[in-house]
Write a structure and sequence with these properties.
Order of helices and strands: HEHEHEEHEHEEEHE
CATH topology of the largest domain: Oxidized Rhodanese, domain 1
Low-confidence stretches: 8-20
Distance between the termini: 47 Å
Shape: globular
CATH superfamily of the largest domain: Rhodanese-like domain
Largest sheet: 5 strands, parallel
Strand order of the largest sheet: 1-5-4-2-3
Radius of gyration: 17 Å
Structural class: alpha/beta
Helix content: 40-55%
Number of helices: 6
Length: about 170
């Protein structure tokens, strides 16, 4: 009986810790976003992809992050060197979803797209971290499913709860 009680208390403590961490993550995101680009939840993006809707997904992270893993079908555009000239093949009314690790860099790229006249730009809420935390698949640069996710650095990596963190 005592052993079962210890197991139950341990389980509840772990659940509470994860819940608190998740709340802190969402609080951090709300404080970080400028809300200049409409957001799409990972669940809604997944539903659109599952329904085979036409979506252009732009990964705004660094190339080493993209090569470690990315959302299937995502196109690498690099936050640091992004220019609208890199997406002249896209229609201004096309649905474009931008993402990065948590959504900050992608929101900046989304602002540039909107300023250039793109009308249907959405920022993936929580970025690839939230995508993976919810259990959705990512692929590597060989298009193989992977559990590896570039966690940017140790400070940001604490928000990635699932997957195998990569830092180099």
């Amino acid at each position: 009986m005592k052993k079962q009680l210890i197991i139950l208390v341990s389980f509840l403590f772990i659940q509470l810790s994860f819940s608190q961490s998740s709340k802190l993550y969402h609080t951090m995101l709300k404080g970080m976003y400028k809300n200049t680009v409409e957001q799409i939840s990972p669940q809604d993006l997944k539903a659109k992809l599952d329904a085979s809707e036409t979506i252009t997904i732009l990964d705004t992270r660094k190339i080493k992050e993209y090569n470690t893993s990315h959302i299937a079908g995502a196109r690498f555009v690099d936050y640091d060197t992004f220019s609208v000239d890199k997406v002249t093949d896209l229609g201004k009314n096309e649905l474009v979803v931008v993402y990065c690790s948590v959504g900050y860099r992608s929101e900046r790229v989304g602002e540039k797209l909107r300023k250039a006249g793109f009308k249907n730009v959405l920022n993936l809420y929580g970025g690839i971290f939230e995508w993976v935390n919810l259990g959705y698949d990512v692929i590597d640069n060989k298009t193989d499913k992977t559990s590896k996710v570039h966690a940017y650095d140790k400070e940001w990596g604490k928000w990635l709860k699932k997957g195998d963190k990569v830092y180099e």
